[in-house]
Design a protein that fits this description.
Blueprint lengths: L29 E8 L11 E7 L6 E3 L6 E3 L2 E9 L2 E9 L6 E9 L9 H23 L9 H13 L29
């Protein structure tokens, strides 16, 4: 699971526009767990990891030989938690390249584009609104301070549970992936991804 990004071209770090049409119907709606790690941080390796979710709204995830030496790049809307002045917020952005803290990814399943079929840009905007709604629900249950209840592990799992509701495709968070704060009082060390 994953790849190294030790030697990539500068184009690898440039963000591109969301495609206006679906590129590959088979990949459209694929949902990925992205794992980022800062191994320079002290402590337990699993607590050096932060998670995000990427949803491929245009079926554009590919093995990119031009910029990443052939590494598979999950592309689409990335949803993750950020921390500003001690308060946790949800962020959405276009993911079209692997970031320096990237460690690995895992395909979790697929969701259906029900409301914006054939229009990745509109689906992307709809997912951003859904992410805000789901984050507000998560925050009301877990607070907005980075801790064992409110962290990137728990939010990623929560987001997958919400996205799997009324979804005709298989989508679930893997049981083998560690979730800080689920069965302990641990929480991942925050770092910007």
């Amino acid at each position: 699971m994953g790849c190294s990004i030790s030697s990539v071209s500068p184009a690898f770090f440039e963000t591109t526009e969301c495609p206006s049409a679906v590129i590959n119907n088979e990949k459209e709606g694929d949902v990925y767990l992205m794992v980022y790690a800062d191994t320079n941080l002290p402590g337990d390796t699993k607590l050096q990891q932060n998670y995000s979710i990427v949803i491929d709204v245009a079926g554009e995830s590919i093995n990119d030989h031009d910029t990443s030496g052939g590494a598979f790049i999950p592309k689409g809307v990335e949803i993750y938690l950020s921390l500003s002045d001690g308060v946790v917020n949800v962020q959405t952005q276009r993911n079209d390249h692997l970031k320096p803290m990237f460690q690995s990814y895992k395909l979790l399943g697929k969701i259906e584009n029900v409301y914006h079929q054939g229009n990745p840009k509109e689906w992307s905007d709809g997912l951003k609104q859904a992410a805000e709604k789901f984050f507000n629900e998560f925050k009301s249950q877990n607070g907005n301070q980075w801790n064992h209840q409110c962290n990137s592990h728990k939010f990623s799992k929560y987001l997958i549970e919400k996205l799997s509701n009324n979804n005709p495709h298989q989508l679930q968070f893997p049981k083998e992936i560690y979730i800080a704060g689920e069965n302990d009082k641990e929480f991942p060390i925050y770092f910007k991804i």
